[in-house]
Specification:
about 290 residues, alpha/beta, Rossmann fold, four-stranded antiparallel beta sheet, 10 helices, 10 strands, binds adenosine monophosphate
């Protein structure tokens, strides 16, 4: 595995791979790797000749009162995981390498950002889109892998690729969960033991909602109320949002039909967690 910290070195490594006609699979992350990231790396390995992993905690996508400084980091551990996962190139740039000065321009995401995390984290997806665009330009992969735990991010990146005619295939990968259902997340380390016991109830609430959709007897507001009701009973933390929208368009739909996303964000003391399920309203099956 080659660890590259500068854009110059990365360009050289990519040029070499391209000249050898290697297909590149790319997995962008913020590090503190877990099973969720490993799933993406595994898929990238299966589909491509070369796997590029980036680890970069992108300041542009954090709001002023968010957890940029506290975001968990452990490069040595990540390096080991990356090696074991068969990564060929690990891109680990500094902030000054990625942003030598304040960016002269950023991408403004116009659709799908007035809901879910876009509504509660203004500017977040502009920051995500900007860094992913930069990384795409540098890595020039055939395919890029994103987790459905961040389903809104997947929808927005797919729109970006469409809008700017970027010749990269976006591959969404299923959410990886702990045995008790909690979605794996780098931020889970910031849960207190009590909060950690509590947190699987987020997914339980989503599953209960999916059962309700399956019976085809409830409206969008019923589903939201059902989840909120469950979450309000939790001993710790507070609801950030609960919503039911069409997917991938992310539009409110009173009539539950087609592919829909049931999504929530929940704030514990030191960690804000998100989770979602996608349901085919016609069959009630998760998809
Ligand atoms: P992050 O490092 O949290 O920015 O995540 C990097 C990539 O890993 C994103 O595409 C995430 O959606 C994906 N990811 C994070 N957690 C999970 C998970 N539990 N299951 C699947 N993918 C995940």
């Amino acid at each position: 595995m080659r660890i590259v910290k500068t854009i110059q070195e990365l360009r050289t490594a990519i040029a070499e791979a391209k000249s050898n006609h290697k297909k590149i699979g790319f997995v962008p992350t913020m590090g503190f790797l877990h099973e969720g990231h490993k799933r993406l790396l595994h898929q990238a390995n299966e589909d491509n000749d070369i796997v590029v992993l980036s680890i970069f905690v992108n300041p542009l996508q954090f709001g002023p009162n968010e957890d940029f400084d506290r975001y968990p980091r452990d490069f040595e551990r990540d390096e080991q995981i990356a090696r074991n996962a068969g990564v060929n190139i690990l891109f680990y740039p500094s902030i000054s390498e990625m942003y030598p000065e304040e960016p002269m321009m950023i991408i403004q995401v116009k659709k799908g950002v007035d809901v879910l995390c876009g509504a509660s984290r203004p500017g977040h997806f502009d920051g995500v889109a900007t860094v992913v665009m930069k990384l795409f330009q540098l890595v020039q992969p055939e395919r890029a892998y994103f987790g459905m735990k961040d389903a809104q991010q997947v929808a927005i990146i797919m729109n970006m690729v469409d809008t700017f005619n970027i010749p990269i295939e976006i591959i969404p990968c299923d959410t990886v969960r702990e045995q008790d259902g909690l979605a794996k997340s780098s931020r889970n380390v910031y849960l207190s033991p009590e909060e950690r016991n509590d947190a699987p109830k987020l997914y339980e609430a989503l599953q209960k909602a999916s059962d309700c959709i399956k019976k085809q007897t409830c409206t969008r507001s019923d589903v939201i109320a059902l989840i909120k009701d469950d979450l309000q009973k939790l001993a710790y933390g507070e609801i950030d949002y609960v919503d039911v929208l069409s997917y991938p368009r992310l539009e409110p739909i009173e009539e539950l039909s087609g592919k829909i996303i049931v999504a929530l964000a929940y704030k514990y003391e030191k960690a804000r967690l998100i989770d979602n399920i996608l349901v085919n309203a016609a069959t009630g099956k998760e998809c």
